[in-house]
Amino acid sequence: MSPSLDLTPRDDLNELLSTIVPFAQEILAEHGEFAPLGAVYDTDGLIRAAAIDTDRDYPDAEALIGEILVSMRAQAETGEIDAAAICSNVSIAQDDEELDAIRITLEHRDGDALSVFFTYEKLEGGYEFGEPQVLSGQRVIFEPPDIAA
């Protein structure tokens, strides 16, 4: 069962979440882990995978996230996308213990930036996912909005 994903007032960010989280959960269920992945909401209102050069070797998840960011920044600069999401498998500290989690960083052209975490536990027969934890995020894809009017 997918967790509720209506976490932001922006429909395009919710659509990105509603697309990327079930995909990550499916990969996790099949393989026990997943490499970072990205999706963008383009200016035509379509969600598509973030394009990266998959012929290259990525020594770790952070290097792959770096490549995804480069691709997204280029698309943001040319005005091709309105929103972007990067999803990765992380460990977080919570209540004095380390928990596995799916992290989704979301960013919108108009200024919103969020980080959403779904903790999870592998159980016999599948995975159990916790409630989403939503935090303010940092803008790293789109230029900061112009606040001087």
Mind explaining what this structure looks like?
The protein has 149 residues and is α+β, with helices and mostly antiparallel strands. It has one domain. Helices cover 26% and strands 36% of the residues. The protein contains two helices and seven strands, in the order H-E-E-H-E-E-E-E-E. Strands 1, 2, 3, 4, 5, 6 and 7 form a seven-stranded antiparallel β-sheet that branches. 27% of the residues are buried. The mean pLDDT is 87.
List keywords for this structure.
single chain, 149 residues, alpha+beta, seven-stranded antiparallel beta sheet, 2 helices, 7 strands, globular
Instruction: Label the overall shape.
Output: globular
H/E order of the elements?
HEEHEEEEE
Structural classification: alpha+beta
- Separation, N- and C-terminal Cα atoms: 45 Å
Number of helices: 2
Tell me about the largest β-sheet: 7 strands, antiparallel
Task: Tell me the helix content.
Answer: 25-40%
What's the overall average pLDDT, rounded? Answer: 87
Strand content: 35-45%
Number of strands: 7
Counting structural domains, the number is 1
Report the radius of gyration as a whole number of Å: 15 Å
**Poorly predicted ranges:** none
